[in-house]
Amino acid sequence: MKTKNLIGMLVLAAVLVAAAVFVSREREPATAGAVGKLVLPDLPLEQVQKVTIGSPQGTVTVARVEDRWTVAERFNHPADFKRLSGLVTRLAELKIGQVMTLEEKQKAALKMALPGTAAEAGTLVELFDGANRRLAALLVGAEHMRKPQDEGGFYGGYGDGSYVSPDGGRSVYLVAQVVSDLETSPKDWLDRELFSVDSAAVSNVTATSATGETLELERPADGGSLKLKGLAENEELDSGKLYSIEAALSYLRADDVADPALSDEALGMTTAAVFRVTTKNGEVYTARIGGAVAGTGRRYARFEAALLPAPPAPEPPPVADTNAAAGATNALAEAKAKAEERKKTEEKIASLNAKLKAWTYAIESYKADAMTPTRSALVKPKEKKEEQPPPPPETAVTNAAPQAAVTNAPPEAAATNTPPAPAENTEPPAPTGGEKPAGAGS
Fold first, then answer.
1. Over the stretch 96-130, which tens digit does the pLDDT of each residue have?
2. 424 part of a folded domain
3. Is 178 exposed, middle or buried (0-12, 13-18, 19+ CB in 10 A)?
4. What is the mean pLDDT of residues 261-266?
5. Is the dihedral of CA 301, 304, 305, 309 positive or negative?
6. Which range marks the domain in which residue 94 is found?
7. Which of 94, 106, 107, 364 is the most exposed place for a label (fewest CB within 10 A)?
8. Are residues 314 and 225 in the same domain?
9. Could you give the angle at the alpha carbon of 368 between the alpha carbons of 364 and 370, nearest 5°?
10. What domain count does the chain have?
11. What single string gives the DSSP state of each residue in 96-110?
């Protein structure tokens, strides 16, 4: 080899080594400087108007429509805004804990692949503004698992972080939080809390079955459990089932929402059972229970609310003296407080109907069963009390001695040592010998 060529190769090698050292030095500070910074810097949360979550299992879209957040894949039914807000806030607060340098095989093992590009892909969360411009995206991969502390590994590890990427898998970071709540089932993002009626506030229940059988239960004025009207003397209520009826509308949740395009016939609403509850303050809640949801044990149901007319306000007493005037003032204050409470209740009922009126829900079977009671299931024959046999008659004490059983005792005063007194005008007893007494005839 010529000396000139050898010198050229040595110079080139030196340049390459210097470049490699320079690049490594450039990367080290950049990597170290990234730790502790936000994964999604400068995310304008106030501009977020749509969020999509996609995974190999599916995609869900939660978007703001007019003045409310809705789930697009569920006919724009209202979304669980609290849950969505919590997720977006957590994403905005994620900080880089470690910058990962990975080969492609390692990325695949950590699910650092976009949905649709690999079988073991991660979950992609995208945030858009009102003009459908993407503000940010985050690819969430596998959890980082902490190794068990015990030597044998008996208790197993647990997740203490997540692998994420803000650029589709090119840059991979480890964050110290497990990024969860990324379900892609649309029903999981619905606002499923419908309403709740306190069981203790229920004053009347009317249940009419699809066949027309009607049961009416009413709570006595002095409180206690609901009583079934028309209960015979030889019948009684099953107390366990009675409570499930009282609490049928407590913490009522929907499992899913039906397609509004389905007909009443398809939903079983043409032969729906009707369950109506009236509360102590005049609120009336009506549930119509339709057919079964195909492939599940759930039932279709519709709900509405109303308010009984307010009772007439009592007339204030005539103002005749100072005490009466004070009483009238108190009566007016009480009437004003009731009017304000009535207005709040009216607003509550109107808001509830606005939320419920357009939808048919799928509810759990145990709730539907509580709203469709039958008399045969609720009433049972009264248990007959076993008659106790009469007590046995008193028996004589056979070991006791009969009265006057002592035969050697003298009659009359036999229990004393005093001899009986002599009788008046009686002759003395005759002597036992042959001599006659003095004065006796021969």
1. 999 999 999 999 999 999 999 988 999 999 999 99
2. no
3. middle
4. 97
5. negative
6. 45-189
7. 106
8. yes
9. 120
10. 2
11. --EEE---HHHHHHT
